[in-house]
Amino acid sequence: MDVVRTAIGLMSGTSMDGIDVALLRTDGRGFIERGPFLGVPYEADFRQRLKRALELARPLTDRNGRPAELRDIELELTQRHAIAVMAFLERFGISANAVDVLGFHGQTVLHRPDEGLTIQIGDGQQLAQTTGLSVVYDMRANDMVHGGQGAPLVPVYHAALAGKFQQAGQAVCFINIGGISNLTFIGTDGRISAFDSGPGNTLIDQWVEMQTGQAYDPGGEIAGRGKVVAALADRYLASPFFRGNVRRSLDRGDFAPLRAGEASLEDGARTLAHVAAASIIQSTGFLPETPSTYIVCGGGRLNGTLIAEFSVMAEGLGSNVLTAEEAGFDGDAMEAEAWAYLAVRSLDGLPLTFPGTTGVGAPVTGGVLATP
Ligand SMILES: Nc1ncnc2c1ncn2[C@@H]1O[C@H](COP(=O)(O)OP(=O)(O)OP(=O)(O)O)[C@@H](O)[C@H]1O
Ligand SMILES: CC(=O)N[C@H]1[C@@H]2OC[C@@H](O2)[C@@H](O)[C@@H]1O[C@H](C)C(=O)O
Q1: pTM over the 0.80 mark
Q2: Which atom of ligand 2 is nearest to 335's Cα?
Q3: Which residues bind ATP (predicted)?
Q4: ipTM surpassing 0.95, yes or no?
Q5: Could you give the angle at which helices 265-284 and 202-212 cross, rounded to 10 degrees?
Q6: Which ligand is closest in space to the CA of residue 15?
Q7: How far is the CA of 111 from the centre of ligand 2 (A)?
Q8: For burial by CB atoms within 10 Å, which of 40, 60, 247, 294 has the most?
Q9: Which of 11, 2, 4 has the alpha carbon at shortest distance from 330?
């Protein structure tokens, strides 16, 4: 029998809004028992430090390069993850002895798939020492070494969750609307097709923060008061990203922010919510068939304007749209759960990525193990 392990997944995503912590009991294959979830938000000062880390990383050509200031931020990020793990264990009354492994994503500070370069800061060895737990980290690198895009990695977990839809003979598509959006299509034959689908919340967050100082558009209310400025939307939707047959993974900076004066606050937020929804639909043109059901995950599902628009577009094409919760999952926890699942697969030497997910030539495993 395959070994069932208890793993904690840790995700600090492209939105840089905080650390997601989730527990999973799994054999890294078909057995999945979901445990508790905790979101530990970053305060504004640390978000600024992470933005500084993106600037410091921009000139890097070596993924191990760490100018002193970037290394300081890496150590602070790692320390914050250790504190988040301790807070999680305490909050839910879980003994550290019951945990087999931590799956540590770190923070992506640079992602240039065309140059074979992806950098996540986060020191796995330090996290293992501080927590006394084994850590699997740096899970994207080996995929890129083998010619993959290094992202997305969550699809193998989506596929494991899709069983009940497959049994019902439905082609299902998970949409994760985070800082960037990505999707995983699982056909009725179990075949996976996954890729980054466009800008998610990042453009909206940047716009709303520049105009109001708020980190995001709560509920999509600001967008709800605006109208789509077609010329601005077209500028984004005409991006070469949506053309050609090879799917490319995205970096946070790949789509330029809307500039001050280009729209009112409300129209800008509305236009960017439209862009987020329409870019997912444009990307679904690369799927082998129209999904019967979409399952929407990630923070963007809480932007009511974005989701209303996406639902109208998807339903117009004959699909059904469910939130993660309506489908029986947790839309906030899913990425962190995926990092727990991937860590267990890594320990068992199972592949993390596949030709249909990152474009890698053959299935490859990944991750580096650090022990305390
Ligand atoms: N109540 C809300 N209303 C509207 N938008 C929200 C709400 N809560 C979160 N969001 C949006 O969701 C974002 C965070 O989403 P999420 O945590 O899924 O992203 P991430 O994991 O950082 O990104 P990625 O999946 O790209 O790595 C926030 O930056 C914000 O834009
Ligand atoms: C390089 C990187 O960190 N990419 C993230 C980002 O955020 C969403 C999208 O772009 C996806 O490709 C990926 O994260 C998800 C969790 C993944 O790898 O599946």
Answers
A1: yes
A2: 16
A3: 13-20
A4: yes
A5: 180
A6: 1
A7: 10
A8: 294
A9: 11
- pLDDT (tens, 9 = 90+) of the chain, 372 residues, equals 689 999 999 999 999 999 999 999 999 999 999 999 999 999 999 999 999 999 999 999 999 989 999 999 999 999 999 999 999 999 999 999 999 999 999 999 999 999 999 999 999 999 999 999 999 999 999 999 999 999 999 999 999 999 888 888 899 999 999 999 999 999 988 899 999 999 999 999 999 999 999 999 999 999 999 999 999 999 999 999 999 888 899 999 999 999 999 999 999 999 999 999 999 999 999 999 999 999 999 999 999 999 999 999 999 999 999 999 999 999 999 999 999 999 999 999 999 999 999 999 999 999 999 999
Is 19 annotated to bind ligand?
A: yes
Report the residue among 195, 216, 337 best suited for mutation to probe ligand 1: largest number of ligand atoms under 8 A from its CB: 216
